[in-house]
Write a structure and sequence with these properties.
heterodimer, A: seven-stranded mixed sheet, five-stranded parallel sheet, B: ABC transporter involved in vitamin B12 uptake, BtuC, 3 domains, five-stranded antiparallel sheet
Chain lengths: ~425, ~525
């Protein structure tokens, strides 16, 4: 009995020392966490972002790594399950001790991991357009804030060139991003003199596929004045909606629909005929002609072919969140070089003011204070081949307003993360 | 296509006559610059009736077949460039960019083309042109429309032109004209007219005209209300027919056989993917008959799903009869396996399934009621499948065996029915019908690995509500739920409608657990 106990003790000690010695070896690499859903409903959109990060890591390692060390990807799969995002984030920060994480798509997943990153002082790059109303010291938002996507799009539709819309249908899937965006848009439209009866807000459940009633309502509503539809419908529910619109005889030039969640990747599995002429607002389109974009597309094409990325090996596509990931990764590398360390606080300090030639053709800048990128806004019309024609763009990069001035409660909020005193 | 040919023919005819010629400068102004200046150039060009070259250039612009460089404009045809003024073939430099039209430019181009068409000798084309102009009436077209109206011979076109004239006169500075227009427009009754009247009402100052406009709007509203009511009924039936299709297979596997088949949705998905595969085969091997692919896909999707169903029954489900909990878990596991298998085969992305031309668009029954062809086709298809299944169960030997086995398995076995084989056939039949539902769903929604997940709850709801073991109950429940859902959606929106329907079903099942129709006789207690 005694002997067995002693034996156990020795094994335990050995195991412990073995475990302790592991991180020492791991110091030779810099770990980069990838927190994107690879299964479940969001896999369609998110899995390609994982590949984008892997491509960037391979690229950086080919250039000789960072600070003399190789980068190492730690890929976890939160499986489109919001609470699991928080668990996986904790695992990345405490077990794997990643220097930085690229991840999340839906706002609810970001909200789920946010307390973890703030508690453990991690660093997260979030690459998707979102509803704003958030600013954390530990997060860099490389996607668009509402004033960098939604508001310019609505301004365009109000302009003579965009059709001079007078009445508005705000149509969305029922969750936080569409609700908040529509709240901001409603306040914005009111500030432009649009009356309440000229705005309808309609929501559908996730995965809704029968848009007959909604299209009939839009048709009826549009008889009261020039109407435009602002769609925050999530992902693939858009397709039955556009199909129904086309079959009901509502054309893009009669009732234009501008979507904030329809990009090149979403149009891949789609018969684009009924969509042609409808609009999307993004900060990047694959069809933009710029040297940086040519390089980006070539890199992605080569990577997708070499690594058999499903779908992309035959028809490589790039989109806005991929571009945002690309810019974010490059800026993080620059910031680490500037700081000379991967220490989170020093990297955060070095991030402000970083610039990078973005594939969208502008020089993208990380704002000195507010953790958001300056971005140009493009309005694109859907083409039959699933790409976009840019029909309008902002004259220059727009500064992000994470706290929308159109929400009254935001008055007086500071345009930079509030650092809480350490306990 | 025909219209375009006629137009070209007509353009060629006009070309022979001396007309206002298109200059290089005009062509450039039309193709390049910002939208406002291009529209100005276009309006300048269509003050007179645009001639052949100008019409051809406008048509090419509307077709997105024009390129430009800093110095020249090219009309593209079959990959070759032509000079818009001389019509001679010219080499196109690589740097040439596509002319991009936005929606405003496009509707201006369409209106300009309509003006060209208005002069066509074909009455049908003229009528179409009037419709295009009526959808976006602008005052600048008034003199031309007046002239055409005076010269028009065809009664139908003349009436349409008259209405268009009234629409244009609604913003005339002459009060008497406005009054006459407002009074006349009430009888036109299209949503476009209502839009026009509403817009005018907002700026109108003359009280007589105001009240005439209000009366006209009321008159139009009365007409439109009927279209709306019929629309709600149609959408309800359409949703009901989809619910019927997705539930019918389950009515057999769950209703008659008692297998809680959580993989039912995935069998639909297999049917939808079978449709996708057939579509691709037709596209690569029989492009001429592409529009018929759906017809070929119907039997293929049935067989594919039935085969998978038969394999499932033989390998898994038949060991689990009478153990509903194990069946539930096993079939749920199977559904996950099937989904992942499809992800591995076809990728996690949705796959594109195109509507053939005859299922695209819709039939305009009333000015504000368009019935989409794909929805009509699905209603008819659902009825046919229902009739087929009912006949199969009621009149065939297999149907007799299935009924016999479900009513009393031991007794059926005693009189020599091979119950195991009947089970397999019945399960394959239910699965095959799920495949047919998948084929139909591919025409209205997305085809992806998760397709079945969106319908599994609905299909169980329909079967349970209708009464387990009753085909008739399934029909009533499906149509009832469809219409109820659409009525509630029109009233309270999609999210609340869904909740209210679920609450309704919960309460209904509490009060009447056996569903709308109860099984009668001994088997009900079994």
């Amino acid at each position: 009995m005694q002997r067995r106990f002693a034996l156990k003790l020795t094994t335990a000690a050995l195991a412990a020392s073995g475990l302790l010695s592991l991180p020492a070896q791991a110091q030779d690499t810099i770990k980069v966490g990838v927190l994107h859903s690879l299964s479940g409903t969001m896999a369609i959109s998110e899995s390609v972002l994982k590949d984008t990060v892997l491509m960037m890591i391979a690229d950086q390692n080919a250039k000789g790594g960072l600070l003399g060390k190789k980068l190492e990807a730690v890929v976890v799969d939160p499986a489109s399950n919001w609470p699991l995002f928080a668990e996986k984030a904790r695992q990345l920060l405490t077990q794997d001790k990643v220097a930085v994480t690229f991840g999340c798509w839906t706002s609810v997943s970001r909200k789920s991991v946010l307390p973890v990153y703030e508690e453990l002082n991690g660093l997260l790059f979030y690459p998707v357009q979102y509803e704003g109303e958030e600013l954390s010291k530990n997060v860099f938002y490389t996607g668009a804030a509402p004033n960098q996507q939604a508001i310019p799009a609505v301004e365009y539709l109000m302009s003579k060139e965009g059709g001079g819309a007078k009445r508005w249908v705000l149509l969305g899937t029922d969750y936080v991003y569409p609700r908040t965006t529509n709240k901001i848009l409603r306040a914005f439209l009111k500030s432009k003199g649009v009356k309440d009866e000229d705005i309808v807000e309609t929501y559908t459940p996730f995965g809704h596929s029968d848009y007959q009633t909604i299209v009939a309502d839009i048709k009826k509503f549009s008889a009261g004045g020039k109407t435009a539809v602002v769609s925050t419908i999530n992902g693939d529910s858009n397709v039955p909606f556009y199909k129904e619109l086309g079959n009901a005889g509502l054309k893009a030039k009669d009732v234009p629909v501008v979507a904030f969640s329809v990009g090149e990747e979403e149009l891949r599995g789609v018969d684009t005929k009924p969509l042609v002429g409808h609009l999307a607002a993004w900060n990047y389109f694959m069809s933009i002609k710029s040297p940086a974009n040519t390089e980006f597309i070539k890199k992605w094409t080569d990577y997708a072919k070499a690594n058999n990325v499903p779908g992309h090996k035959d028809k490589p596509l790039t989109n806005d969140p991929m571009e945002a990931t690309y810019i974010g990764f490059n800026m993080w590398v620059q910031a680490v070089k500037k700081a000379g360390t991967t220490d989170v606080d020093k990297v955060i300090a070095a991030m402000g003011g970083q610039t990078f030639p973005a594939p969208s053709g502008i020089t993208s800048k990380m704002d000195e204070k507010n953790h958001h990128l300056w971005k140009s806004v493009f309005i694109g019309e859907i083409r039959a081949d699933g790409q976009f024609n840019v029909v309008w763009k902002t004259p220059g990069p727009v500064k992000a307003q994470p706290w929308s001035p159109f929400i009254p409660e935001n008055k007086g909020k500071k345009d930079e993360p509030v650092v809480q005193a350490k306990k | 296509m025909l219209i375009r040919w006629l137009l070209l023919l007509w353009a060629a005819l006009v070309l022979a006559a001396p007309a206002q010629a298109l200059t290089q400068a005009q062509a450039r102004a039309l193709a390049t610059g910002d939208t406002a200046s291009r529209i100005a150039a276009l309006n300048e060009l269509v003050v007179g009736v645009p001639d052949g070259q100008a019409a051809a250039l406008i048509q090419a612009l509307a077709d997105d077949a024009v390129k430009f460089t800093d110095t020249a404009v090219f009309v593209m045809k079959d990959g070759k460039g032509f000079d818009p003024v001389t019509g001679a073939e010219v080499p196109v430099p690589d740097a040439a960019e596509d002319v991009i039209n936005n929606n405003q430019m496009r509707s201006e181009l369409d209106a300009a083309l309509a003006l060209v068409k208005l002069q066509s000798p074909d009455a049908k084309l003229r009528l179409e042109a009037v419709k295009t102009l009526a959808s976006d009436p602008s005052e600048s077209k008034l003199p031309l429309v007046e002239k055409t109206y005076a010269a028009e011979q065809d009664a139908q076109v003349k009436e349409a032109l008259g209405n268009l004239l009234f629409a244009l006169q609604l913003s005339s500075p002459d009060t008497a004209k406005r009054l006459a227009a407002a009074e006349a427009l009430g009888s036109v009754g299209t949503p476009a007219t209502k839009l026009l009247l509403t817009e005018r009402a907002a700026v109108e100052t003359d009280p007589a005209v105001r009240s005439a406009i209000a009366a006209a709007i009321e008159q139009i509203d009365g007409r439109l209300a009927w279209g709306e009511r019929l629309g709600v009924v149609f959408t309800g039936i359409s949703l009901g027919s989809i619910l019927l299709l997705v539930a019918l297979g389950l009515a057999i596997t769950y209703g008659l056989m008692g297998v809680i088949n959580m993989a039912h949705g995935e069998l639909m998905m297999i049917g939808a993917y079978a449709t996708y595969v057939v579509q691709n085969i037709f596209r690569s091997y029989f492009p001429g008959a592409f529009d018929l692919y759906v017809l070929a896909a119907i039997p293929v999707s049935f067989l594919a799903a039935a085969l998978v169903g038969a394999v499932l029954e033989r390998s898994v489900i038949r060991w689990l009869y009478g153990r509903p909990l194990e069946t539930l878990l096993a079939t749920w596991g199977i559904s996950l396996i099937l989904m992942q298998a499809v992800r591995n085969l076809f990728g996690a992305q949705n796959v594109p399934v195109e509507n053939p031309a005859w299922l695209s668009g819709g039939m305009a029954v009333m000015s504000n009621l368009t019935l989409p062809y794909n929805r009509i086709a699905i209603i008819i298809f659902a009825m046919l499948v229902l009739a087929g299944v009912a006949a199969l169960i009621a009149y065939t030997r297999l149907g007799l065996f299935v009924r016999g086995v479900t009513q009393n398995r031991k007794m059926a076995a005693c009189v020599g029915v091979n119950t195991a084989r009947v089970d397999t056939y019945a399960f394959a039949l239910g699965s095959g019908i799920a495949g047919l539902a998948g084929c139909a769903l591919s025409q209205v929604g997305n085809v992806g690995p998760d397709l079945g997940q969106n319908y599994i709850v609905d299909s169980f709801m329909v079967v349970v509500l209708g009464g387990v073991g009753q085909l008739a109950g399934t029909v009533y429940a499906a149509l009832g739920l469809g219409v109820l859902n659409k009525l509630l959606e029109g009233w309270q929106g999609a999210v609340l409608a869904k909740i209210m329907v679920l609450v309704f079903i919960v309460i209904f099942i509490q009060k009447r657990p056996q569903g709308i129709f109860a099984m009668k006789g001994r088997s009900a207690e079994a």
